[in-house]
Amino acid sequence: MPETQQFDVIVVGYGDAGAAAAIEAADNGARVLVLDRAYGGGASALSGGVVYAGGGTRQQREAGYSDTVENLYNYLKQESGDSVDEATLQRFCEESPGMITWLEEQGAQFAGSVAPYKTSYPTDRHYLYYSGNEKAYPYNLTAEPAPRGHRAVAKGLASGKVLWQSLAGSAKRKGVTFLPLARVSSLIIEDGAVKGVRYRALDQAHPNAAEHAKLTKRTGKIGNWAPDLVKKQITKIEKLWNEGSVEREARGSAVVLAAGGFIYNKEWVARYAPEFTSISPLGTPADDGQGIQLGLDAGAATAKMGNVTAWRFLSPPSAFIEGVTVGVNGDRIKNEDLYGATHGNVLMREFGGKGWAVYDSVSWKKARGQVWSQTQIFQKLQVVFLMTIGHKKARTLGALAAKMGVDAAGLGKTVDAYNRGIADGSGDPAHKDPELSIPLLKAPFYAFDISVDSSSFYPIPGLTLGGLVTDGETGLVKRQDGTLIPGLYAAGRNAVGVCSNSYVSGLSLADCIFSGRRAGRHAAAQLRSADEREPTRG
Q1: pLDDT digits (tens, 9 = 90+) for 396-423
Q2: What is the pTM (predicted TM-score) of this model?
Q3: Dist. CA 308–CA 465, nearest whole Å
Q4: Are 173 and 109 a contacting pair, CB within 8 Å?
């Protein structure tokens, strides 16, 4: 018989969603066990550590920006669509300013220094920025733009790791028990209610544990951006775990599934989102849908499984937004000042993942001058590639089209319409911000390939957005018929959430915190209610 452990709340997955659930449950009196397939952190720790928050955070006010809950709601309603009900979105927005405060209480740090230019991720001089479509058409028609991307204070790409470490440290101080290298194989269900989990774990005292930890540390960040480079090491890590793991089970009154999405499950991506099979998976190998499968095995419903974010960022440098993007037929893709995943979604779904960004010599020269001041190291590497061997150049647009493999008449028509709108004052036909709409007039002309298969040096990374359907008020998982599964919760990318319709930077982590806290709070409250109903024994 496997060893059995007894807790109140069991959390499966230890990224930001799992950590938030654990903290909230512990704060409300629950004994909490967290199980993670790796060492904790997951995709959250590998992320940019950006939390999308507004409605008047301290950082927004210090930077001189006025934002309200209503304004935040008006913007996010456009992004979230029908991914959550109106009451849930309203509650998300109302709690948004306090979310940053709560994270600071757990040990995270944020600052109000705003990036003065459009960027996909700011340098270490700036920790607050316009991280979505706030300034872009048509989003700016119904909501006043405000910077809402709150990046955790840290150097370089460490913001995600530092944010998660703050949460994990807080959970540890509150008495949460964490067991790494533990893979849940099934839920324990009794009388229709979830009562625990069965899992296998590699004990830290096992001889394989030290080598497993060393290889995992070496491959984590590289695997996030270039998974093909570490395939052999991943196979070795898997073998070490298989050789040393043992079966166990844990019982409690509630289980919170926070095990991430399924971007590393090629079969599922091909089934649910065939347009996105060529993108570079962003996350960890544990983002294989196992947490979603656990819910399905319990009779849960899923939604938004075909929604995948594809990040085709044009900036930094910010001058790269001044060009036009076209498909192979020469047609305009969309206004280039859209958030990279919003623009990328159109590229993938409507243009077959094939496209080019086109510039004249004025914008190209301007972009060159911005590279070193506007980029982090990973962005520098990509831009250096684009500006050296990764672009095409020609004296005329027709000659450039030939080198690109793009219809010359279509490209000429698109550029003519763009230039004419700027010249006659009617504006860009695609409604790009006038400040970023610069005519393409001066030769030579330049272009680089923004296709999904353009180059391993310029990938389109992405993650899945769909998952288990949950109740907006409690976080309990729903069955196909809409009824709730007692004792089973889901959070983060294991579930459908605020970001499941349309992703912008920081919205997934914000949803992880929101949904994780919701699940942990309700699970602990149900435990207290059960204790209060328990008759006094004398």
Answers
A1: 999 999 999 999 999 999 999 999 999 9
A2: 0.94
A3: 6
A4: no
